[in-house]
Each structure stands twice: as C-alpha cells, then as structure tokens.
Fold TetR/AcrR family transcriptional regulator.
Amino acid sequence: MGRWEPDAKGRMVRAAMELFAERGFEQTTAGDIAERAGVTERTFFRHFADKREVLFDSSRTLERTAVEAILAAPADDPPLDAALAGMLAAGGLLEGRHEHSVRRSAIIAANPGLQERELLKLAALAEATADALRSRGVADPAATLAAQSAVTVFQVGFARWVSAEDPPGIGVCITDAAAALRALR
Amino acid sequence: MGRWEPDAKGRMVRAAMELFAERGFEQTTAGDIAERAGVTERTFFRHFADKREVLFDSSRTLERTAVEAILAAPADDPPLDAALAGMLAAGGLLEGRHEHSVRRSAIIAANPGLQERELLKLAALAEATADALRSRGVADPAATLAAQSAVTVFQVGFARWVSAEDPPGIGVCITDAAAALRALR
DNA sequence: CTCTTTGATGTCAGGCACTGACATCACGAC
DNA sequence: GTCGTGATGTCAGTGCCTGACATCAAAGAG
C-alpha cells in the first residue's frame, strides 16, 4: 500500500480543485496539478483516465449508494418511489459538504468539457438505477423512464440546493422536485 | 461562396461516417477524414470545433425544429404536451433516414467520448425546450422538469425506433414512450 | 539480517488533437 | 485589369495521453 507519501490521489484531487478555481480548467495543465501534488504528470494519468476525471472521483460511490438504497426499498414501492429513494440516499452523501459542492459546481459550470463528463456520470447513474429497478422486477420501458426521471429530479433538487443562500437539507430539495414532477400534467 | 469544390463540409461528414464505420472512431485521425474529403487537416478544424462534432452537425436543426413546434402548439396545451409536440417535430426530421440513424447510433454507441457529446447535445435540446416553455408562461421548476421529461421520452422512443427490425414510424415510438411515462405514477 | 518480491513511481519518447500566424488562391466587384 | 474577400494551404508549437523500461520503498521469506 502506501510506501511513499500517502494519499497521492487525494492530494491530486485537492490540488486540481485549487488550481481550477484559481486559473480555470483550461489554463491548468495536468503537469501543473501533478507538480502541486508532488508527483509527476505520468503518475497523474495512472490515477485518472484523463484530466477531467480528477473532479469525478466520488461518482462511483454515489452510484453504489443509490443502487443499494433502491434494492433495500420496500418490495411494493412503485418504481418511481424506489428510484427516488436511491436519489435521496445519494444526496445524503453530500449533506455535510455544501460549500465543497458549490465550489465544484462552479468549476464544472464554467467549462463545457466538464459538463459533458458530468452528464456522462449522470447517465451512468441512470443506467445503474434502471438495472436496480429491473432486478426488482420492473420491465422496460418503465425501468428506463423511472430511472431517468429520478435522476432528473436529483439534478433539479441538487441545483436548487447548490444555489440556495441559506442551504436547506438536500433531501428537502429533492423531495420538492419530486413533488413538482408528479404535479406535471 | 463556393469557389472550390462545393460542399466541403458535407464531404467531410460523409468521409467521417465511412471511416468511423470501417475502422472505428479512435483509429481514425482527423487527417484521415480530411484526406478522404480532399482537404487538409487544418480545414477540417475550421469547419468543426473538434473531431467529435463532425457527427453532430444537424443537432442545431433538430433543436430549432423542436422549439418552433413548441411555440406553435396550442396555448392551452399543458407543458408536457407542448414539449412532446416539439419532440415529435424533431423526430419527423429523421423519418426518412432510418438506415442512416442506425449506422450513426452504432458508431456513437461504440465510443464513450461520442456518447458524452450526444448527451451534451440532448442537454442543449432540453435547455432550449425549457426556454420555449418559459416563453409560453411555464414557471420553473415545471419548465425544466417537463422539458427534460420530454427529451427522455425522445431518447427512449428513438432507441426503440433504431433497434426495431421492421421500422415503424418514429412518431409512434415517441408516442408510445410518452404513454409509458404517463403510466408511471 | 539479507534477499526477493511487489507495486507505485520516475523517465523518456512519441502520436494525435487542436491552435495561431501567415501565405496563397479563386472568384466577384469595380 | 486590379483589387478585395473569404476559404484554403502551410508551418510551427502546445498540451493531452500512452507505451516501454528503469527505479525505489516497503513487506515477506529464509
């Protein structure tokens, strides 16, 4: 395990957040990030598939948490309810990190390439959610539609949570967004 | 206008489709595409912001068509109905191009970078749709939610249309997906 | 205590994506 | 015929990312 300075990955993530906030994503090279983290550029690319991935290291944890919550939901919950339970669980991971989420969102909002990557992660979350619903016996296209709807609710709720001055709970934001979706006609 | 061989852009689009189908996206360089189209690599990048964009040249037309249909929908249509009218109009543009759509989808499905770009275009479509709804007097978050739901319906319907052996109308596929969404509840 | 193994890291060379600066050329306007 | 205009060609350069190989700290075997 750690024979050198420990947590090289964490150091790179923090260095990247700092540099992206200071000069912007495009004005920061992979070598810059590595240097501030005390490693070489080559090591950076051993930990992250590309320069953008350094901002999405926790997306797999989010996905896993959502899937587990969906599988743990009451068996008679309708598909959308189960999927939304997954989104609430995922949101819970961010509960204590409002300030960090705001900074990260600002960085992503400032760069189309990073928005692309975020959309890919959300699509992966939707796909994992749909798989979880299918393993609960939900057939397509209902599984796909419920999963994608839940992720949309997560996006809308998260956006409001991040833009709020006095941060409410993210759970409230997600629940409100879910209610607004159901109120559509 | 055209003082050289006309339709350089169209030639590049066709050359790219051929090469991506033959060897795959990553195994094709921008220089390869340019060469087959009879231009230089530098000219390729004057027409397309990056290598992926060559597959998404028609996305702005799709977006414009959807917006116009939404604005033309009956004023008393509920938000989701109006948004879906936009998706049906957009789908209409593909009606006569099933084979082309199948080939293009296969290329995109084979490469994560292209999927990212497609997600970005769909997000732009959703944002334009939401804007159109807002200009009809729909407030947020209903506008965002209805727009994103409509785009999801478009995606699901399109996917079924593309994977169908004996292609039905794409309008039927979209309408069916919309019905499945409404049946969620 | 020494040797070996293991895995993370460093070093180096190179391909491809993309860009800025400048030259060139075809065609239309006058 | 000259001149302007816009698309194209040419060239040099930066940054992203990868493969191949060397190195080194620490853990385990004897």
